[in-house]
Design brief:
- The protein has about 200 residues and is of the alpha/beta class.
- The protein has one domain: Spore Coat Polysaccharide Biosynthesis Protein SpsA, Chain A (Alpha-Beta Complex), CATH 3.90.550.10.
- It is built from 6 helices and 10 strands; from the N terminus they run βββαβαβαβαβββαβα.
- The strands form 2 sheets. Strands 1, 4, 5, 6, 7, 8, 9 and 10 form an 8-stranded mixed β-sheet that branches.
- Strand 4, helix 2 and strand 5 form a beta-alpha-beta unit.
- The N and C termini lie far apart (about 35 Å).
Length: about 200
């Protein structure tokens, strides 16, 4: 990793119950591998200091199916209480070296290492609280949170993500154009999945 690149930990949020999907979407096949495998491999191939995978719902099934490589696996036993608990679980496992956490959704298989690296390189540890990727002026994911705001994540409840803090700390939110629409593409429903897989085939 270049000396000028700040150490940033990647936290993959993959503990949810996939209620709108109706099945374990982390294990859905995508381009020959389970969906979550693409995201883990991408994160490991990037300039992230470390990769932490947060599991919860059907964790045993996922763990016995997936090769996590060098990623660190942590369990969120409170996953039913919403995404805020996964953020907090991930933060609790983060290295003391890291200056920020990049929260990567477990249902965005098209997010690539280039986008992750651009966010890491665009992060200014002393000037940014939240770094938010944009494409054509629209915000997306993954979102980077500076260490100074880790304690604020502990105040979140229910299904709130880091975005719940953006309004309160608007002067600390920096938008960063990553030049890639992948930040807008996630899989929430079966229709989303079918569209994505058909797009990849065509």
């Amino acid at each position: 990793m270049p000396q000028s690149t700040p150490p940033v930990s990647g936290i993959i949020l993959a503990a949810g119950q996939s209620k709108r999907m109706g099945q374990v979407k982390q294990l859905l096949p995508f381009e020959g591998k389970p969906l979550i495998s693409h995201i883990i491999n991408t994160a490991l191939a990037s300039q992230l200091e470390e990769v932490i995978v947060v599991l919860g719902h059907r964790a045993e099934d996922i763990e016995k199916t997936i090769d996590f490589g060098d990623a660190q696996l942590v369990m969120n036993n409170d996953y039913r209480a919403g995404q805020s608990t996964s953020l907090q679980t991930g933060i609790s496992a983060i290295s003391n070296r890291s200056e920020a956490a990049l929260f990567i959704l477990g249902d965005q298989p098209l997010v690539n290492a280039g986008v992750i690296n651009r966010l890491i390189e665009g992060f200014k540890p002393k000037g940014t609280g939240f770094l938010v990727p944009t494409f054509h002026g629209r915000r997306g994911n993954p979102v980077l949170v500076a260490r100074a705001f880790f304690s604020h994540l502990k105040s979140l409840t229910g299904d709130q993500g880091a975005r719940a803090l953006f309004e309160e700390y608007a002067d600390q939110v920096e938008e960063f154009d990553v030049g890639d629409e992948c930040i807008h593409i996630d899989i929430d429903t079966l229709a989303d999945y079918l569209k994505l897989t058909s797009d990849q085939i065509s």
